[in-house]
Amino acid sequence: MSQTNDSNAYWSANLRLIKISLVIWALVSFGFGIILRPLLAGITIGGTDLGFWFAQQGSIIVFLILIFFYAWQMNKLDREHGVDEE
């Protein structure tokens, strides 16, 4: 495979990973925390309703999980394409 094709494959996989992460983040923070909040109000978690929980703590926790997931996947992608740091 040529250098250009390999580079395009690397960046294509990187952008796909970024898009997936952003969709999950938007769904959790905007979707569950704002749009679907009235539907989630009847479900209780930790002494408060699930919609409020997503708006306050859930989106932050999911965001932190996404950071670690992205770093893990990027390290894997870097190794596959021979651009890792080790």
TrEMBL record:
Boundaries of every Sodium symporter small subunit domain copy: 8-84
Residue spans crossing the bilayer: 20-40, 52-72
Coiled coil: none
Keywords from the UniProt entry: Membrane, Transmembrane, Transmembrane helix
Top-level division of the source organism's lineage: Bacteria
Protein name: Membrane protein
Organism: Roseobacter cerasinus
